[in-house]
Amino acid sequence: MSRLIIVSNRVSVPDHKGAAAAGGLAVALQAALAERGGIWMGWSGKSSGEAEPEPLEMTQDGNITYALTDLTQTDVEEYYQGFANRVLWPICHYRLDLAEYARKEMTGYFRVNRFFAHRLAPLIEPDDIIWVHDYHLIPLAAELRQMGLKNRIGFFLHIPWPPADVVRAMPVHEEIMRGLSSYDLLGFQTDHDLENFAGCLKREGMGIEKSPGHFSAHGHDFRGGAYSIGIETAAFAAFARKAASHSMVHKARKSIEGRDLILGVDRLDYSKGITQRIDAFERFITNNPAHQRSVTYLQITPKSRSEVPEYEAMQHAVAEQAGRVNGAIGTVDWVPIRYINRSISRPILAGLYRLAKVGLVTPLRDGMNLVAKEYVAAQDPDDPGVLVLSQFAGAARKLHGALLVNPYDVDGTANALARAVNMPLQERQERWRGMMDYLLEHDVLHWCETFLADLTAK
Ligand code: ADQ
């Protein structure tokens, strides 16, 4: 079996606290690496001076080598905070209005990809297979090919891929499309993202889809597929079962005083639709006064990317909005919204999911959305809660038992909330069973194995 090399912007170096601390994606990638032996390379998260780069920071764990590189402060600003998070992220989430193009940052993005290629190339052996992750590193294969590497290289995009008209708003869209076309296998979260990619190739006149999932562009033949990422379903369900006895979960249960818990869990990001969700909750209460005091909405939202201006602005907007709604609909003995800006350990998170009568997951656009899957996995089969899910999350393509909503439609989401809190047990069980069966079969290991099987297939 060939060795595996994984490259991603950030790397999960194990701290040996077990799966609970690591999260499903890291666990699955580490399992794939352990099976084949290999290397996981990425940015250390640190910035260094502009002088000669320090040698790679290597950590050995069994047959896996973790190789981390520092970047300069300029690199971090241009590649990561700049082009990756202020152009590719908004564009891929259909937010043309938020994309900030600057030539300097685009150049920095391609420069850092070349730097990654030069640091990685000496570690690569001829029959290694290489798996690159996410939008930070789209040009990496093209750079490695430029250096003469013939290895099989796959790419998985964790975020959505938008239609041609959106992609074409990006000044360097041709280079980005050429970068994607340099891989041997391109993995997208859903069939819709794959269709959008095929549409972009066609619209650009860059290439053709010779047969479903088989492309030819720039003189290179490659494949593309939809590989929906999963979670560690069985392990997560086990955390949730155990979590009932966790003191924090116990305290949370006591503090809601018998009310139904509606739960939202998201990184603080404009793609997650948090402000629209708070509006929908307020509308639900004003349209259904009988539910005043009978529900508590808990929104757990750790800060992310605070160095990017749009995120900082959002932090203020959400906090203000939650305060305003509490002021408007709260009563002396009822605080409708609890808003928390912190990360929560996975076992406690699993316990809170299980406690919640409704999982409210309403991104405006999301590659997959693992929170939706975790919420389902954490439910008590005898008394499962209801998932209210945005039709614009990749997860909606397969989680047919959810109540699907359009997050831009505040009344529609408010109505779905009312339906969720009133749903009879039998309907909740039927909806949940179908989703859970799907998630048990399509877990994160299945995702990882399917992608790697296709990447290594002749
Ligand atoms: P994200 O945008 O980060 O991921 P998501 O898929 O929901 O979104 O994953 C978030 C993860 O963070 C979940 O595992 C969740 O449990 C965890 N998390 C969120 N809030 C937390 C908190 N307060 N405390 C602790 N943990 C918390 C990107 C894409 C997604 C895609 C994933 C994986 O944007 O669309 O599903 O990658 O491919």
Total beta-strand segments: 16
CATH superfamily of the largest domain: Glycogen Phosphorylase B
Low-pLDDT residue intervals, each spanning 5 or more residues: none
Count of discrete structural domains: 2
Q: In what order do the strands lie side by side in the largest sheet?
A: 3-4-2-1-5-6-7-10-9-8
Q: How is the main sheet built? A: 10 strands, mixed
Tell me the Rg in angstroms: 22 Å
Q: What helical percentage do the residues reach?
A: 40-55%
Bound molecules: adenosine-5'-diphosphate-glucose
* CATH architecture title of the largest domain: 3-Layer(aba) Sandwich
What's the total helix number? 17
CATH class of the largest domain: Alpha Beta
Structural class determined from secondary elements: alpha/beta
Could you tell me the mean pLDDT? 94
Q: What is the CATH fold-level name of the largest domain?
A: Rossmann fold
Question: Per DSSP, what share of the residues sits in E-state strands of 2 or more residues?
Answer: 15-25%
How far the N terminus sits from the C terminus, by CA atoms, comes to 14 Å
Question: Judging from the principal axes of the Cα atoms, what is the shape?
Answer: globular
GO molecular function: alpha,alpha-trehalose-phosphate synthase (UDP-forming) activity
Subunit structure: Homotetramer.
Family: Belongs to the glycosyltransferase 20 family.
Enzyme class: transferase
